[in-house]
Amino acid sequence: MPQNSFIIANTNLPQLEFVVEYSWSSTQSDLDTSTRFLDANVGFRCSPDKDYIAFSGDDVSSGGKETITIDVMEAFEEYQLSGSTSVAAFAGWHGSENEGDATLKVFLRKKSDQALISGAVLSSTISPGTQNGCAATAVGTVQIIRAQHHTRFALVEA
Questions:
Q1: Where are the domains of the chain?
Q2: Residue 74 burial by CB count (10 A; 0-12/13-18/19+): exposed, middle or buried?
Q3: What CA–CA distance (Å, rounded) separates 30 from 61?
Q4: Assessment of whether the complete model's pTM goes beyond 0.70
Q5: What digits encode the pLDDT tens for the residues 69-125?
């Protein structure tokens, strides 16, 4: 299996949601994010949520986090996808001051109780840019490759 990836059985996908989480330390504040998947681009000053993708909201605090939740199964069914697709992650510190690195974490969790799925967590240190609108600095991509019985999620650094 490729490094920085995990596989999940397709039969489990209807009970799971895919989460993209951007976080930063208590010495930093106001990381703005943008996550692009299919025809959606959600995040601070980006497009509105879609049925299958939701943004947690703009977190301007120190030591905060912003999350995007994706119902992968619903998206695959709505768009009749059978092969692969990707989720693009973008981040930038609000304003003109670069506050350093942050963390990008992607994982699967149960829809019912939000419990993490063991072995289905990937993370990377990212280097956001700066901006005042929808984040445009690429910080990573998640490749989602669906086969007949399993789906692979792989985090590729920018």
A1: 5-157
A2: middle
A3: 6
A4: yes
A5: 999 888 888 877 778 899 999 999 987 677 899 999 999 999 999 999 999 999 999
Question: Among residues 23, 20, 21, 36, which one has the least CA distance to residue 99?
Answer: 23
Task: Label residue 126 by pLDDT band (50, 70, 90).
Answer: very high
Tokens of 40: 């959606």
Q: Could you tell me the CA-to-CA distances from 150 to 7, 9, 35, 154 in Å, in that order?
A: 6, 4, 24, 13
> In this structure, how many other beta carbons lie within 10 angstroms of the beta carbon of residue 152?
16
Average pLDDT over all residues of the chain: 92
- Can you tell me whether residue 12 is helix, strand or coil? helix
Q: Find all residues with CB under 8 Å of 8, minimum gap 6, and list them.
A: 16, 108, 117, 120, 150, 151, 153
Over residues 57-79, the pLDDT tens digits come to 998 889 999 999 999 888 888 87
